[in-house]
């Protein structure tokens, strides 16, 4: 796997973890401009389309499983919520080509939104940890994940040269009898224009594990399409028109239902007849990029975007209760952003502004199956709501000499909401800063560190939510909440030579006014700024190359944190562990590349310690987290690839070789048992 090493953590060294000598990569997310990853004072994980295909990853969240500092919780097989340095869901910011996907309806805790990004349609994605609030705005407490879509690469061809290229991928999973396929085609004229169209179809079957056997209703279908038209009327003016669509149906929250018999490590059985999610998302944008022939501005970009999402849930709570529930949310989001870059002496200055506006329609009902009484006024969030966010930002990077680089930035954010059905309104504002430095110690080693602030304004779900969380608790919003704020201190080191790559870092995050769900004593939990918290962690990863064929790669990560919060509303404040923090976890792999570069093979061991530091919410989540915590595990896997011809490549993944029964901490189902992933890719 060719991860661009980034998460860093301590003062110890381990063999690196990428499998091959990793060349420096250009990244854009950390500084909102193109830069060499090795010269960045930020931690940026880069995972490419090749990584996803070669390593048998099923979804975008699963492809983060070998990333230090990230734990991928799955409430069900069709969800997947990365915990990035202890934060998940709406406390992490998701982007596509720099455009915000987060909207004001996102629920708290581990949720499904990261799995609505089609990993097979991407050129790569970049993850920047503990960063993003200055350049991208609210929500980037744990980090920012930017999915960068594939294109035609029309500017790589000679001017006027007609080109066409394409690829078809197929994968079969023996464990769940799943089929995944994608076809993509590009045509165009070199230097002038390019058009790319792709579609991905997925038919996921039911997962099997040794303890449960077939976990009924864990499979689901998914359809995706994307198209991109790129046009350059002049050498320095570029236009991009993009559209992306995803649809997922019948995603069962398995742990809640009677198909979950419980029992494993003392877990409770599910009690609902059904609990089903449908998810639909559509993104469109038009982007203009210009590199004017002027000495006071290097480039600028203007982007207009429109998104619509539909998020629905159906619950049949029988036999646990005599109730059927349905909720549906449709959100239209309009966005505009502007950014520009100028150079003043040794300093590159980035500046700009962005504005997003959500329009929300929400409906829901509850039926008493005994009396047939219907309550049509139980929407999951307040109907007819509007949410607006405006940000103005700047960031300056100065190369003082060949050794020292500093980066400083700030953003002002104003957010407000009109909650139509409740005739209420609220607003918030924040000013956040970051300051980073990178020092080149010698030709191999560098050190970096800094201080950054984060900010998350309460959204409409925080204020008005009426949903079901964890193992069946009622979860309600609260008007008048304050924003969540973070301060993160970080220090790390990076090394790179012909034989190895290595990065390590330590971080400490302070969280103020954390919005948590606190029980009111009547079986309901309510949103409250009831918590102060802190998280610290270490992360390290690296790759060591023995010779042209053999290499060793691996990572290690550890987190620890507490929160001060009442166990129930109005109760005394107590110290508890933060919910679902990742235990000590790591992975080590040995890789062989054939001398003629036609085939490769890799054997990997991944392990996690027991997750036994539980919050009160974790202890009450008895369908997902076993009494006393989630057990430790060691899982063995193997991957191999063969370039059979110039245009045909084949891959084989063997997962969970010992058929281990295990689950990621906080997940609602066990991971798949033994299975093979068979993949083929044809290019033209």
From TrEMBL:
Family matches, as Pfam families: Plug (PF07715), TonB_dep_Rec_b-barrel (PF00593)
Stretches assigned to the TonB-dependent receptor plug domain: 39-144
UniProt keyword annotations, A-Z: Cell outer membrane, Membrane, Receptor, Signal, TonB box, Transmembrane, Transmembrane beta strand, Transport
GO molecular function: siderophore uptake transmembrane transporter activity
Region (Disordered) residue spans: 610-630
GO biological process, one term: siderophore transmembrane transport
Keyword Transmembrane applies: yes
Location (main, coarse): membrane
TonB-dependent receptor-like beta-barrel domain segment(s): 233-657
Membrane topology annotation: Multi-pass membrane protein
GO (cellular component) term, any one: cell outer membrane
Localisation per UniProt entry: Cell outer membrane
Keyword Metal-binding: no
Annotated family: Belongs to the TonB-dependent receptor family.
PANTHER family registered for this protein in UniProt: HEMOGLOBIN AND HEMOGLOBIN-HAPTOGLOBIN-BINDING PROTEIN 1-RELATED, TONB-DEPENDENT OUTER MEMBRANE RECEPTOR
Protein name: TonB-dependent receptor
UniProt organism field: Roseibacillus persicicus
């Amino acid at each position: 796997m060719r991860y661009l090493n980034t998460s860093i953590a301590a003062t110890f060294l381990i063999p690196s973890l990428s499998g091959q000598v990793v060349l420096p990569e250009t990244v854009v997310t950390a500084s909102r401009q193109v830069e060499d990853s090795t010269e960045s004072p930020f931690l940026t994980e880069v995972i490419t389309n090749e990584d996803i295909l070669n390593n048998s990853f099923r979804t975008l969240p699963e492809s983060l499983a070998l990333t230090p500092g990230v734990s991928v919780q799955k409430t069900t097989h069709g969800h997947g919520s990365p915990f990035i340095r202890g934060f998940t869901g709406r406390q992490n910011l998701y982007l596509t080509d720099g455009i915000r996907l987060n909207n004001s309806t996102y629920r708290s805790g581990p949720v499904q939104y990261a799995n609505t990004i089609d990993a097979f349609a991407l050129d790569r994605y970049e993850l920047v940890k503990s960063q993003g609030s200055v350049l991208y705005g609210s929500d980037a407490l744990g980090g920012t994940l930017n999915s960068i879509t594939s294109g035609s690469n029309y500017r790589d061809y000679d001017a006027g040269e007609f080109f066409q290229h394409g690829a078809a991928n197929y994968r079969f999973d023996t464990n769940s009898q799943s089929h995944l396929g994608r076809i993509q085609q590009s045509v165009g004229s070199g230097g002038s224009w390019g058009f790319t169209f792709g579609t991905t179809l997925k038919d996921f079957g039911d997962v099997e594990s040794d303890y449960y056997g077939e976990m009924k209703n864990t499979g689901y279908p998914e359809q995706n399409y994307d198209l991109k038209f790129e046009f350059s009327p002049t050498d320095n003016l570029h236009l991009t028109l993009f559209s992306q669509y995803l649809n997922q149906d019948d995603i069962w929250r398995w742990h809640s239902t009677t198909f979950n018999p419980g029992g494993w490590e003392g877990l409770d059985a599910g009690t609902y007849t059904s609990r089903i999610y449908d998810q639909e998302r559509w993104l469109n944008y038009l982007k203009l990029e210009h590199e004017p022939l002027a000495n006071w501005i290097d480039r600028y970009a203007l982007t207009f975007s429109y998104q619509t999402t539909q998020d629905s849930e159906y619950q049949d709570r029988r036999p646990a209760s005599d109730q059927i529930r349905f909720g549906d949310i449709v959100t239209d989001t309009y966005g505009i952003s502007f950014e520009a870059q100028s150079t003043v002496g040794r300093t590159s200055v980035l500046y700009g502004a962005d504005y997003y506006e959500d329009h929300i329609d929400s409906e829901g009902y509850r039926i008493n199956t005994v009396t047939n009484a219907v309550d049509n006024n139980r929407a999951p969030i307040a109907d007819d709501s509007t949410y607006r966010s405006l940000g103005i930002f700047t960031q300056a990077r100065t190369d003082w000499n060949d050794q020292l680089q500093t980066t400083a930035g700030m953003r002002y954010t104003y957010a407000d909401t009109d909650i139509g059905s409740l005739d209420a309104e609220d607003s918030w504002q924040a000013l956040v800063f970051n300051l980073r430095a990178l020092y080149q110690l010698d030709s191999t080693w560098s050190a970096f560190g800094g201080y950054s602030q984060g900010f998350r304004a309460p959204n409409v779900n925080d204020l008005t939510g009426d949903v079901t969380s964890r193992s069946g608790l009622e979860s309600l919003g609260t008007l008048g909440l304050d924003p969540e704020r973070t301060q993160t201190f970080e220090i790390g080191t990076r090394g790179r030579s012909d034989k190895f790559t290595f990065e390590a870092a330590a971080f400490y995050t302070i969280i103020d006014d954390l919005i948590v769900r606190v029980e009111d004593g009547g079986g309901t939990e309510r949103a409250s700024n009831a918590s102060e918290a802190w998280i610290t962690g270490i992360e390290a990863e690296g790759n060591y190359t023995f010779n042209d064929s053999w290499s060793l790669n691996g990572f290690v990560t550890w987190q620890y944190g507490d929160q001060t919060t009442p166990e129930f509303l109005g109760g005394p404040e107590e110290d508890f562990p933060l919910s679902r923090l990742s235990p000590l976890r790591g992975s080590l792999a040995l890789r062989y590349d054939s001398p003629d570069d036609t085939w490769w093979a890799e054997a990997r061991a991944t392990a996690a310690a027991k997750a036994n530091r539980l919050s009160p919410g974790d202890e009450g989540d008895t369908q997902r987290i076993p009494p006393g915590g989630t057990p430790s595990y060691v899982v063995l896997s193997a991957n191999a690839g063969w370039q059979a011809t110039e245009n045909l490549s084949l891959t084989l993944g063997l997962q969970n070789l010992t058929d281990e029964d295990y689950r990621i901490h906080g997940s609602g189902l066990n991971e798949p048992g033994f299975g093979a992933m068979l993949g083929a890719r044809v290019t033209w």
